[in-house]
Design brief:
Elements: H1 6-27, H2 36-48, H3 52-65, H4 70-82, H5 86-99, H6 104-116, H7 120-131, H8 136-152, H9 156-169, H10 174-187, H11 190-203, H12 208-220, H13 224-237, H14 242-254, H15 258-271, H16 276-288, H17 292-305, H18 310-322, H19 326-339, H20 344-356, H21 360-373, H22 378-390, H23 394-408, H24 412-424, H25 428-441, H26 446-452, H27 460-475
Length: 476
C-alpha cells in the first residue's frame, strides 16, 4: 500500500474492485453493472499489462452493452492493430467514424493501420486532410503525428516542414521545439530556423527553447558570436539549461576563446551529470592554453568515466610529451595501446618517446610496427626513416626510402630525407643534387630537412642553395 499518497490507494482499491467485478461477470457469478468508463479502465489495465486476450474480451463485452460507443470501438480497434488484424481494425474504425468523426484518435489509429501495412502515402493523406479540419491542441497533435509519418518513410524535408507548421500554430510546443532542433541540423535548413525562432521570440521573448534553437541554427552557419548571444539569453531565462552551456562551450572553442569555454563547461558540470566529453573538452582547452597539468587532470577525469576510451590516454601522453616528460608519456601511451593495438598514431608517439630517451632500438621497433599497420601512409614511413637517421643507420634508412617510395610514391619529404642521408654519409655533391631536385618539387617542405637535422644549416652550400632558390622563386 502507498503510505505517502493515500489517494493512490483509493484508486488502486477501485481498480481492483472493477477487475474483480469483471472476473465475476465473465464467470456469470454476478449481475453487477459496469458502466462505460469502468470498461475503459479495465481494457486499459489489461492492455498496459500485456494481457491482450483479457483486454480483447473486456472490449467485446463492453461493446455488447454499449454498441454505440465510438470510444469503445476505438479501444477494440487499437487492440486489433496490436494483434496485427489490420483489416478488422479498419472496418471497426469506419463504424466508429459514423458514430463520432470528431475524435482525433480515430485518425491516429487509421494512420497506425496504414503505417503497419507500409502504406505511408495513405497515412499521410489521412492526417493532411484532418489537419485542415481540426484546431487548437488537436491540430498540434495531428501535425506532430504527420511529422512522425514522414520520419518513418524518410521524407526528412517534410518532417522539418511539419514541425515548422506546428510551431507557427503553437509556438510554445515543447515537443516540436525539441524535435526541430535536431531536424534543423539534419536538413541544414538553418536560415529558415533562424527566421522561425526569431518570430517566436518576438512574440514569446521568455521561450528559452526558442533562444536555444536560434543559437544552434547560428552555430550551424558557423556564426559563433551570434550563437553565444542566443545561448546567453536561454540561460538568463533558465540558469540550469545544461545544453545551452554545453553548446556555448563548443562555440567558444571554435572561436579559440578557451578561458570562456572552460568557464561555461565547468558551469555545465555544476548543474548536470558529469560526462566524459565535457571533461575532455575542458582538457582540450587547457592544452590549447599550454596548461598541461590541468589538461591531464581533466583528461584523467574523462578516462575515469570512460576507461575504455584509448584516445584519452593518448592525449594524456601527448601532454607529457609536450613537456618532454618522456617516461610518463610512455606509460600513458602504453595504456592507450593496450586498448587499441592497431593505432599507428600511438605507435609513432611511443617510438618518438623512446628515441628521445636514446632507447633507439625500442623506438625503431615501434615505428616499424606503425609502418606495418599503415604501409600506404607517408607519416609512419617518414617517422621510421627519421628514427633510422637519428640512430645513425644511414644505409638502412636509404633502403627504407626505396621501400617507402614503392608504397607511397615520390613524396617531397622523402627526397629531402635522401639529401640529408647523402650529406650525413659525406656524399655532399650527391646531397646537393638531391636537395636541388627536392626544392624544385616543393620548396615549402625544406623545413622537413631542417627538422630532421638542424646541423645541416651549418653547411654553407646548403644555406646558399636554399637562399638562391627562394630568391629565384620570388623573382618569378
Amino acid at each position: 500500500m502507498n503510505q505517502d499518497f493515500p489517494f493512490l490507494n483509493d484508486d488502486f482499491e477501485e481498480l481492483r474492485d472493477l477487475l474483480q467485478q469483471f472476473e465475476n461477470l465473465k464467470a456469470g457469478q454476478s449481475h453487477s453493472f459496469l458502466d462505460e468508463d469502468s470498461f475503459e479502465l479495465i481494457i486499459d489495465y489489461y492492455d498496459e499489462h500485456d494481457e491482450l486476450p483479457n483486454a480483447m474480451q473486456a472490449a467485446e463485452m463492453a461493446i455488447e452493452q454499449f454498441p454505440y460507443s465510438s470510444t469503445l470501438l476505438l479501444k477494440k480497434a487499437n487492440l486489433l492493430i496490436e494483434s496485427k488484424k489490420y483489416q478488422e481494425a479498419m472496418d471497426l474504425l469506419e463504424k466508429a467514424a459514423i458514430l463520432d468523426s470528431t475524435d482525433i484518435n480515430l485518425y491516429i489509429l487509421q494512420t497506425d493501420v496504414y503505417l503497419a501495412m507500409n502504406q505511408h502515402e495513405k497515412a499521410a493523406a489521412v492526417l493532411e486532410e484532418q489537419i485542415a479540419v481540426f484546431e487548437g491542441e488537436d491540430k498540434t497533435e495531428l501535425l506532430l503525428e504527420l511529422a512522425d509519418v514522414y520520419d518513418d518513410c524518410e521524407e526528412f524535408e517534410k518532417v522539418f516542414d511539419c514541425l515548422r507548421l506546428t510551431l507557427e500554430h503553437d509556438p510554445n510546443n515543447e515537443e516540436a521545439l525539441h524535435k526541430i532542433c535536431f531536424w534543423t541540423e539534419f536538413t541544414g535548413r538553418n536560415e529558415e530556423s533562424i527566421r522561425l525562432h526569431t518570430n517566436i521570440i518576438n512574440e514569446h521573448p521568455y521561450n528559452q527553447l526558442a533562444w536555444f534553437n536560434l543559437g544552434t541554427a547560428y552555430q550551424g552557419l558557423k556564426l559563433y558570436e551570434k550563437a553565444i548571444d542566443a545561448y546567453q539569453y536561454a540561460i538568463v531565462i533558465d540558469e540550469k539549461f545544461d545544453y545551452a552551456y554545453r553548446n556555448m562551450g563548443d562555440a567558444y572553442i571554435r572561436l579559440r576563446k578557451y578561458a570562456e569555454a572552460i568557464d561555461v563547461l565547468k558551469k555545465h558540470l555544476e548543474i548536470a551529470k558529469p560526462e566524459d566529453v565535457i571533461y575532455e573538452a575542458i582538457g582540450h582547452c587547457y592544452e590549447r592554453q599550454r596548461k598541461y597539468t590541468q589538461a591531464r587532470y581533466y583528461y584523467r577525469k574523462a578516462s575515469h568515466l570512460s576507461p575504455s576510451d584509448d584516445k584519452l590516454y593518448y592525449k594524456i601522453g601527448i601532454a607529457y610529451m609536450t613537456e618532454a616528460n618522456w617516461e610518463n608519456a610512455i606509460k600513458s601511451i602504453m595504456s592507450a595501446i593496450k586498448i587499441n593495438k592497431n593505432s599507428a598514431e600511438y605507435l609513432i608517439a611511443l617510438g618518438q618517446c623512446y628515441l628521445e630517451l636514446d632507447k633507439n632500438k625500442e623506438g625503431l621497433i615501434h615505428l616499424l610496427a606503425a609502418v606495418r599497420i599503415r604501409p600506404s601512409s607517408i607519416t609512419p614511413w617518414q617517422e621510421f626513416i627519421r628514427g633510422l637517421y637519428v640512430s645513425g643507420f644511414f644505409e638502412e634508412a636509404l633502403s627504407q626510402l626505396e621501400a617507402a617510395t614503392q608504397k607511397v610514391g615520390h613524396k617531397p619529404v622523402l627526397q629531402y630525407y635522401r639529401a640529408a642521408i647523402m650529406f650525413a654519409t659525406g656524399k655532399s655533391k650527391e646531397g646537393m643534387l638531391q636537395l636541388e631536385t627536392a626544392l624544385q618539387v616543393n620548396a615549402k617542405h625544406v623545413k622537413k630537412l631542417i627538422e630532421l637535422d638542424p646541423t645541416l644549416l651549418q653547411h654553407p652550400g646548403i644555406v646558399e642553395l636554399i637562399t638562391r632558390y627562394k630568391r629565384t622563386k620570388k623573382g618569378k
